[in-house]
Structure formats: structure tokens, C-alpha cells
Amino acid sequence: MSNIREQYRAVVQAKTPRAFFGNIPRSFIELLAAVPAAALFLTVPYQILVTYLAPYGYAAATVFAGRIGTFLGGAALLLLLGKKCTDGTQVSALCRRNLPLLCFCAAMLLMVFSTYLNGFTYAALHGDLYRHESLFTYLLYFGIYYTTASVISAPRVKKLLLYTFLAAAFLLNSAVVIETYVRQTKMFFAEHTIGIFHQYNHYGYFLTVTVVLSAALTLLEKTKPLRIFAFLSFLLGSASLVLNGTFGCYLACIAGLLFLTAAVSLCRRKFSPGALVLLGILLLVTAALTPVDRTIYEKLFRFRNDVSGITSGSAGNTDEAGTGRWGLWRVTLGEIREHPLIGSGIEGIADILIASSVFHTDRPHNEYLQYAAFFGIPTLIAYLCGLFFVFRSALKHRAKTDACSLAALCAAFAYLVSACFGNTMYYTAPYLFLFLGLSFRTGSRKDETL
Q1: pLDDT digit string (tens) for 253-265?
Q2: Among 97, 284, 374, 420, which residue has the fewest nearby CB atoms (within 10 Å)?
Q3: Distance (Å, whole) CA 377 – CA 29
Q4: pLDDT category, 442, cuts 50, 70, 90?
Q5: What count of Cα atoms within 13 Å lies in the side-chain half-sphere of residue 327?
Q6: CB of 73 within 8 A of CB of 144?
Q7: Where exactly are the structural domains of the chain?
Q8: Cα separation values, 312 from 209, 301, 305, 307, 308, Å
Q9: pTM, whole model, 2 decimals?
């Protein structure tokens, strides 16, 4: 406590900017930077315990969490920028060490430029009533959620955040299973289990990162009680995923577990089959729950038929493949070719997709195509380059990577696979950017990056 008082006194009595910023502890800045992630994770139990299920009430909670994160996370970034500006750090060296952030900043600038040229429509300024994704929301993803998470290097802070997320996910998944299959209510159910989200596939995105993060911590956690909790979270998350029936997310979990196998093997410099065992458990859970819900089983055969029909050209209407996604992608690619540099603006292709697609939906159900359609191909390239540098950094520093950073990276990878089949949403997309940020820096690299 006396040390805190001394640090506070040194900051207050500082005579120069260098002394002011220099006396602010890095640990304090990292705690501030953890607020956006903590606030988002805590909206889950809030929605369960306070409102219990108000489908559109979650928007208010998430928006409020975003505002808190923007204010305190932004303060953390300003303090850290002040430290870097006054301690003699060279801008060129800082850029080289933070290539993902540099690419994401380029993507944000391109988003603003694209929106300016396409016009500041109502959707650009406010988003629609369903998704709440305006230009400011997209900037929040990159500028606050990723950047603040990438500041955090302390393993204890990362661990606290990851287990806060797992605890919230465990609470939600337990409530869904109990209400839907024990009490047999419709509180978390609308054709499929939806949790606290608007649609069942949105819950699927949440389950994707839950399953893979739980699997990673099951393998990497050294504390036995936490490792047991992570395994229980994996089992519950796997069961919830199968009962949810989002096939794209199911495929993403399989891909995530295979990536986990490769990542752990590279870090340990020997083959590690643990994730393959967990993959086998996921398949066993799928088989055991198929009599309860056959959705995954039926979609697997439909997927096989769709792929066979598309590759052989024998399908009667290929636009219906992938529950209509193939047709959406075809139309979206046509619109991207029409406006390759600046896109069509936020929600700018909604009417065209509704009129052209089999299922009359307003987005392409592919996040990569969505970025290109909304903001142009250069924005997509900048985004993909940022992703590339995050994973390249993890590969380069694999010998120094701590368990929490590697677990976050695997969760982010699984989300990126699921992004091939889904849309960004104001309450799911932040998880990707938070886990990407948490994976970028390790305690042993704290002086090498921002």
C-alpha cells in the first residue's frame, strides 16, 4: 500500500511530461487495458441473471460495456502512448514491432475513407436495429478491443480474463442445457438453442471460442483445479455445440482442435496428441447426442452432397448449397467486382442480397467477403495482413509463448474459420479481436512491443 502511495505521489508531483508518464506503472496501464475484455465477458452473466432472456436487451448491455471499454481502454492507450513518446522510443522501431496494429490502423483509415465516399448513411452512422454495427463499431473492434488486449503482457491478467470468460460461458451453457432439456422451457430456444443471442448461429460463434479455448487450457494449464474446470467446460461446451446445431461452427471447432495439435507440438518441439484426444471426445459427444438432436448428423450428409454437387456440376440449384451461402457468395462477389476499391458501404448490398438470394438474407454469411463488399478489397487485404502478422509473430516467438497466449491464439483461429460461414455481430466479433490481442504479446516480450 505504501508503494502505491509513493507512486501516486510521484505522478501527482511530476514536473515534466516525461516524469509524469514515467512514474505511471506499466501494471496499472495493463489493468486499465483489461477493462474492455472484462466488461464484455461480464455482460454474459448480467444478461442471464438480471434480464434472464430479453433478446434485444443484450444490445443495451453490450453497448454499455463497449462505452466503458472505450473510455477506460482509451485512457490506457493514451497513457501508454505518452510513455512511449517520452521515453525515447523510436517510431520506426515501434512500427516494426507492432505490424498487426499497423495493418489494422490502415484498415481503419480505409474504412473511414470508404464510408466517406459511399456516404454517411443511417446504417453507416448508427447501424441497423438488428446488428447495431456502424462505422464506429468496426473501429471499436480494431482500435479498442484488439489494441487494448495486445497491450496486456502479464500472464496473471491474461489468465484472469480467460477464466472469467470460461466461467461466464459455463454459466450460460449450464442455463441453456437445464432450461431446454431438463425443465423443457423455451427461454433459450428458438428452433435451436440460442442462449442469450438473437440467432442460434450467433450462439454457435460463442460456443466455437468456448470449446477451443477450453480444450487449449485443458492441455496447457498447470494448476490441477483449473485444468479440471477447463475440461468440464470443454465437455459442456461440446454438448452445447452439438445441441445448437450450427454446422459451420462445428467444422470450425474441428479445425481449431487440429490447429491446437500443431501449435502445441511446435511449441513443445515434439508431437502432442492431447488435442486429438479431445477431438475424439467431441466426436463421441456428437454420436451420443445424435438421438437427442440430429441436426449436425443431417447437415454433415447435406454438406457432403452439396460439395459433391458443386464439384461435379450435377447439382440442380447450386445457389442453395450450404443453406444458401453459395448463392450469397456468388452475388456478393459480383458486387465486389463492381466496386472493388471502396466497396458499397455499410449494409450497401443488403437489398441486392435479399432480392437475389434463396433465403432472402441481407449479408453474405462470410466475414471476409463482407469486409470487401462494405469497404473494398484494400481494406480486406489490410485486415488479412494484420491477421497474418499476428500468427507469424506467434510462430516466430513460439519458444517464449505462454499458455494463455497460445490458448487465445487457438480460440481466435477457430473463430476465423467460423467467419467463413458467418457475419460480424456487435456481440460476437469483439471476441475475435480480444483473443487476437491477448495472443500477440507475452511476458517475456514486454519490452519488444507496444
Answers
A1: 999 999 999 999 9
A2: 284
A3: 35
A4: low
A5: 20
A6: yes
A7: 2-443
A8: 34, 16, 10, 8, 6
A9: 0.93
